[in-house]
Amino acid sequence: MGLVPSKSDNSARRGLLQDLLRSTSASVLPMMAAAMIPTMAMIGAGVDFGRAYLANSKLQGAADAGALATVRAKQLSANSESRAQEIGEDYIYANFPDNYLNANLQTPDVDVRDEDDVISATVTVSGSINTTLLRLVGIDTLPISARAVAEASEELPTAVEALLVLDNTGSMQSGGRMDSLKTAAKNFVNVIYGDDETRENFAVGILPYNTMVNVGHLVAAANPNLVQSRPGFTNVSLSDPLSWKGCLFADQTIRNISDDRFMMDPGAYDIGADMPGENGMPRFEPFVYPPIYVNSFQDINNRYEIPNSRQDDFFSIPTVRDALIRLHGNNICKNRSNGQPRNCDQNNTVIDFDRLPDRGNYRSPRFYSHKSGNGTNASPNNLWGASPNYQCPAEALPLSYESTKSQLRGYIDNENHALLPGTGTFHNAAMTWAYRLVQRDDVFTRNRPTNVPTKKIVIFMTDGNFDSRDDGRNTSSGRVLDTAYTAYKTYEDRTIISGTSRNQTIDHLGRRFAKTCEAMKADGIEIYTIAFALNNNAAGDATREMFRTCATDRNTHFFSAANGADLNNAFVTIASELIDLRLSQ
């Protein structure tokens, strides 16, 4: 057991300490003070040098960001070198906030050069950090500095083939979304091409979509045997308002596919890169919208007249025939040979226009334009029919190393339009055809450079969830959903599932999309995805997750763009990565 000091002992000790501090005959106090100064300086050095190290690291990151941003900015042809410098400085200050750790920066030096097909930016920035305890030894500040160099070479180490897949659905017309997309896509082109009209070793293509894509004439040009022939429709002049514009129905497929996105279900021809004749795949079927009244989003009279000389051929197209029989019954046919009335379920029959109960509502066909207008009388650029090409977007611009900056920008401005009114948004048909356009260079040929590897890229952008709407029509057997035609025809055609459930159909469309994404990535295609202006609800969250999973890297290759500025940043960021933008020092 220890001894406890008495109160008198404690009092004696306090008195001794007070005597030492009051002493004037000895050097106790000066010695204590002298000893404290180096001790405090050592402590202060540790604290202040630690702060300086953190500030210097932060400043280096800001210099790196500023150099990269400067080069990116200069890639935009509209930016002068001085403007690029300003943008670089803005990035430096954005990444090194005012008074960070009580530091002060001098004006950064940003040097931009565009020489010998290389754009470079050198950033030098310095400043100081105010000390705290080191002030005791006369050191008021510590220096900080950073240097970074970034460059983008015009000569790429690989050939790049980049396909933009752009949402052209009706919802893109709202809130200036299409204008934002045009700006962002053109800035993508600006970054790729810089101030030049051509870009060596770089191929760009564009694929607009809604529920379908327009690639049929590109396929037929490569091999006419790949597409079903439809006399009176596919074999007439393109100047004819009843001629085939080029959209295709989705490929024949089994129903009710598996939920395993890594499994390519046999018989699901609509999810892979196969072409007709490969693995039993049938020929592609030209898209044709039947001459019917459309109950989808807006009520549209799409009943178009067909010249007498072409009626038998046109009404024999399976999609047209099935739609009219389903709509009007089995007694609207005639004997093809003698023209006598005959039920449609008998052999050698064709639909008889004179027996259609609504023939008085048919109207002259219009040359269909995918360019949006406003209202039912917005001639000629509107989507209000009457036309067998109703809802078909612009023909895709295939990948080409000869594409020019002006050509691509012109296509984005003049061919890329929101199709109003619409029948929905189907991502999977667009992704399947993106797969084929990129992967099947034996069909969609391009003048690829030799002796360099090829990097294949798909950049897929949407503003919507999977969706299609058919208000349906009442019949004696219930409500029938058979007027809103998409790449997968109507709900009543049951091409995806055995029933007509909208939710189950969308679920199975999503499964096909996911499988195609995985097949593309397995083939070495790099996928970027951009979800634009999606609602913050369960459906929007599900779409974002679907696109995040589809991307090559869910963290670096997926962009969620809330507004036009975010959308532009996504396209510019991707373009900058594709031109091999890098830090060199």
From TrEMBL:
Residues 27-72 form the Putative Flp pilus-assembly TadG-like N-terminal domain. InterPro entries: Tad_N (IPR028087), vWFA_dom_sf (IPR036465). This is Putative Flp pilus-assembly TadG-like N-terminal domain-containing protein. It comes from Erythrobacter litoralis.
